[in-house]
Design brief:
This protein is of the alpha+beta class. The chain has 8 helices and 8 strands, in the order βααααααββββββααβ. It is 40% helix and 14% strand. α2 runs antiparallel to α3, α2 crosses α6 and α5 crosses α6. The longest helix is centred in the N-terminal third of the chain and has 25 residues. The chain binds zinc ion (ZN) (2 copies).
Length: 287
């Protein structure tokens, strides 16, 4: 099994891709992508600052388990900055939630981050409605912890040795979270399929004809749908467990940045809901 250890997370590419897709009116995702751009810029600065504030030593946890330690010393202050940023520039419900979090104080904020670090994204969480007015507390908590800990997980994960290869696992071999996306990467005259972790962004190879939720491997029960507006995005569905995996096909659009193109795929989510399919794991903004 191949594991992609991409090394440094490329936030600049994410930011540029978000700005580019925001300009495409047929996607109707301008607002979402502009807000994502603000978040990704924060994450980029944080990711770069980690190297300075933490250095290179002692980053990888001694136990070899990504989730075993959270270094609150390099997280909490930045978390305060994230809350302030979203309080000022986030859409209504999120801005309000950010202010409520600020008033909780560092001890409680540390607990929330610690809890997410231990168990976040191991269960399905659609992230639904994170941008809606009536978003639930838990959804909000997960949003802030996820936005904060994504670059942290990518940084610490990048300092670790790659996990031991296992064949076609449905969960991240490094941190046990559910996959966020499928990614088809060009190989030969086709594409090789990888799953991307929703928590630490690791990618691991996965068979093409296989449900990433229940292991169904009968091709007739695994229909694939493609949207007109974004032909490089695939909805890989499973009739057996009624889940779907959104897959970014880099053989069709080599400029796509999977994490970002996924955020722009709003029509897909609405369609999936109507068809009765559930996403294995939702993205940061629940789109
Ligand atoms: Zn992971
Ligand atoms: Zn299935």
């Amino acid at each position: 099994m191949t594991i992609l250890t991409a090394g440094k997370a490329n936030y600049r590419a994410r930011i540029e891709r978000a700005a580019g897709l925001a300009e495409r009116p047929e996607l109707a995702a301008r607002e979402i992508l502009s807000f994502y751009g603000v978040l990704a810029n924060f994450q980029k600065n944080y990711y770069e600052a980690l190297l300075k504030s933490w250095g290179k030593n002692g980053v990888a946890p001694a136990s070899g388990d990504l989730r075993s330690e959270l270094n609150l010393g390099v997280v909490l202050e930045a978390f305060g900055e994230l809350l302030e940023l979203v309080g000022e520039r986030g859409p209504g419900a999120l801005a309000e939630a950010a202010r409520a979090f600020q008033s909780k104080g560092w001890a409680r904020q540390g607990e929330i981050l610690g809890e997410f670090w231990k168990t976040g994204l191991m269960q399905s969480d659609s992230g639904a409605a994170v941008l809606e007015e009536d978003s639930h507390h838990q959804t909000m908590r997960n949003f802030f912890a996820r936005a904060m800990l994504q670059p942290y997980a990518e940084f610490v994960g990048g300092a670790m040795l790659p996990p031991a290869p296992v064949m076609t696992v449905c969960r991240c071999p490094r941190c046990n979270a559910l996959p966020l996306l499928g990614v088809l990467r060009p190989e030969g005259d086709g594409g090789k399929r990888f799953l991307m972790c929703s928590f630490c962004s690791l990618e691991w190879e996965f068979r093409r004809i296989l449900c990433a939720k229940c292991g169904e491997d009968d091709e007739k029960k695994l229909p694939v749908y493609v949207a007109e507006q974004m032909p490089h995005l695939r909805m890989e569905c499973c009739e057996t467990c009624k889940h779907f995996l959104r897959t970014v096909d880099l053989t069709k659009d080599g400029n796509a940045v999977p994490l970002v193109d996924d955020l722009a795929a709003v029509p897909f989510s609405l369609w999936a809901e109507e068809m009765g399919y559930q996403r294995i794991q939702g993205n940061l903004l629940g789109t």
